[in-house]
Every structure is written in structure tokens, then in C-alpha cells.
Amino acid sequence: MAEHSEAGRVTRKGGGLAAYLRGVWAVAEKDVRTEFRAKEVVGTMAAFSVLAAVVFGLAFDLRVPRPELVVPGILWVIILFGGVLGLHRSFGSELDRGTLTGLLLAPVERSAIYLGKVAANLLYFLIMEALLVPVLLILFDVNLLKPLVLLALALGTVGYVGAGTLFAALTAQNRARETLLPVLLLPVLAPLFISGVGVTAVVLDGRGNAEAWPWLGIMGLYDALVYAIAFLLVDVIWERT
Known about the structure:
By secondary structure, this protein is mainly alpha-helical. It has helices at 2-9, 16-38, 42-60, 71-87, 89-97, 100-105, 110-140, 147-171, 177-205, 212-239.
């Protein structure tokens, strides 16, 4: 509980944007510090992503004429399911430790709590992806370190984390949150991941960057809508908490 009071204290030091950002930082720092002490989320996501990549590598070895045909789908499917393993802990861990009420009672904007959770989750996703991409390179001999693929990964991760953190807050107090979260979240993420696969396939096939930009535009629009909706709904969600 002492860690959560830090998020409240920072808003008393000043007003406006600076105080808001301090609240976001305090929530994110608290989550990251707790995670690297407990190692509940990052270890699970990283282990799943690497093991899933190895399984896919064994399954498709010598069974496809060109690995570029399957790598886009493999990359995004692993990110999709690996992310779900960690997102439900955003607020589930607060509930398990009995600290969620203290966090919500802190004199911090509810949207600042949301953005702090988003920032922490972004870090976890980036660690998972930093491990996953080299493993896919080794297993399939396909270079994913191309500017448009990395841009698609960035847009996809930002949108995924934004939507996932919002749904994690929505399902936090449900006893079946581990199963309810993916059931609700995966259909919402379909446009984002279809676009991500589209960008990656276009780049790896060498069809020209012009074909990738419409997909990237969809991803950027999706991200903007997700965060706009999140800021409108976050207070409503936590009024029910």
C-alpha cells in the first residue's frame, strides 16, 4: 500500500500537466519495480514467445516452400497470445494483493492510472518482442528488422496495450478474468492484427512499400480510436469498481 501512496503524493506537489505526468510515472514505476521483484509477467510472456516460436519452427520446417509465407502470421499470433498472458495481471495483481482500492483512492486522475499501467505493459511487450524477433530470425532465416515492419510492430504494440489495459480494468474483478479477457479482447484486436500481418507480408514479399502504407494507416487510426475511447470510458469503468 505504501507504494500506491506515492502515486497520490506526487499530485500534491504541483498542478497541471506536470503533476499529471508525475502521477503516470509513479504508477508505471511502481508496476515495473514490483514486476522485476516478483517476475510474474515478463518471464511468462518471454518464455511463451520463445517456446511458441520454436514449436512453430519445428512444425513448419521443410513444409513450406518459403518461410516468408508463414513468418508474418507466426509473429503476430505469438504476440497476440503472449500479450494476453501478461495483460490480465495489470489489475488482477492489484486485486490479489488487496491494493486496488488504495490505488483508486489516491488523488490521481483515473486516466493517469490507466496511462501508467499502459507504460508498464509497453515495457513488458517490448522485452518480449526483443527476444522473439531474433529467435524467428534464427529459426526461419527471415529478416524482420526492416523499418516498416518495426513501425508496424510499434503501432500494433501501442494499440494492443491500449485496448488490453482497458479490458483488463473492465474484467479485473471478475473471477474468470483469465478466460474472460481474451474472449472479449481478441475480436476487438482483429483489425489491428490483420493489418499487422498485411504490412509484414508485403514487406517480406518485396511487393513495394506503397502497398504497406494503407495497412499502417489503419493501424494508426485504430490506435487513435482506442486511446480516445479509453479516456472516455476509464472513469465509468472504475466507478463500478
